[in-house]
Design a protein that fits this description.
- The structure is a homotetramer of 109-residue chains.
- The first copy, chain A, has three helices and four strands; from the N terminus they run E-H-E-E-H-E-H.
- Chain A is an alpha+beta fold and 109 residues long.
- A two-stranded antiparallel ribbon of chain A has the order 2-3.
- Chains in contact: A-B, A-C, A-D, B-C, B-D, C-D.
- Strand 4 of chain B pairs antiparallel with strand 4 of chain D.
- Chains A, B, C, D: One of its GO terms (cellular component) is cytosol.
- Chains A, B, C, D: Belongs to the UPF0045 family.
């Protein structure tokens, strides 16, 4: 039986680290449409969607994503939100990626 | 229709921030049994389970949790692992909670 | 040099999986005091703090934690918020832990 | 004083939800170089880096990232790993993004 000797189990032969939650394309598309309508700056990628705005705006929109999916019949929703704020300077999420890519471009490889 | 005017939606009237993933008690109990058998130091709480050990040991056991649940018929599993390592000193997860509680105890409120 | 052959590096000999963010006790204590004043239902554990309430209430308080630490001189803050909402039933975070513990109690071990 | 009336504090006027951890470009670039050398399939984006491979391979490489940064003098490191595995089908992280974009393309907007 499966649960008899779990410590002898191998770890999964494949996984995707960094991958976002539910992966149900239809639901994710619904959420993208909401982001589009909202006017917030957003970018979908392989680990979810990054959005940028005031704290209250970002959190309200994410809450509305939950409400939208609930309204569409999804009974339970779990989101993982990583949120950063800083007072030293204003840096967009594109700036952050660019800063790393600029460093890598100097590698000459 | 639900998806017509998502931006007019209220945010959910209740939520639990910090709450761990699947919340299916039976599956979570399976995972706790695996942790118990493994001999690793662990502690279940309202946001998941904290474990402590070498990197390879911790990651292998979490992978075995995935394999165990897959073996029990769960087709897709998503875990959120927050992992920390430090070189300055050795501090157990109990020490961390204690350090905060010690500070709060001085508040006299 | 350290970065020459990173692929030959061993993984860390110890880590804590599930451990919450900054771990600076003083800052964490500040946040606990804010939760206490807020009147929200909360519980600190080894992976952070779980809070329970309406979406807007929870998110506003977490945002105020950022503002509080910024006001105390912390320049950059990163939070990891796992948030769940469900429409099928109301279940507190204590109920969730209890449901698992009840199952484990039946194990007779 | 800052911590006197935290509940009167406004939430931050800007934030980036979904944004990855430390944001120190130099350290992130180091990690990207390690991923490149490793031969693992990877993709950097605004919320971190997604990698794909066997469980053990992915976790070993992430552990080596910690070790690399420790070797470069970073005393404490915290990573947030979201990891998924599934038994129903094999789907790369590009496939996942494509599945959503295909749906959105049918919107005609």
């Amino acid at each position: 039986m499966a649960s008899q000797q779990p410590l002898d189990l191998p770890t999964p032969s494949s996984c995707t680290a960094g991958t976002g939650s539910a992966s149900v394309s239809k639901e994710v598309a619904e959420v993208q449409r909401l982001f589009k309508q909202s006017g917030v700056k957003y970018s979908m990628h392989s680990a979810g969607t990054t959005i940028e705005g005031s704290w209250d705006e970002c959190m309200r929109i994410i809450g509305q994503c939950h409400s939208l999916l609930h309204a569409n019949g999804v009974v339970r929703i779990q989101s993982d939100i990583r949120v950063g704020s800083r007072t030293d300077k204003k840096q967009s999420f594109q700036d952050k990626v660019k800063a790393v890519n600029d460093l890598l471009a100097q590698d000459g490889r």
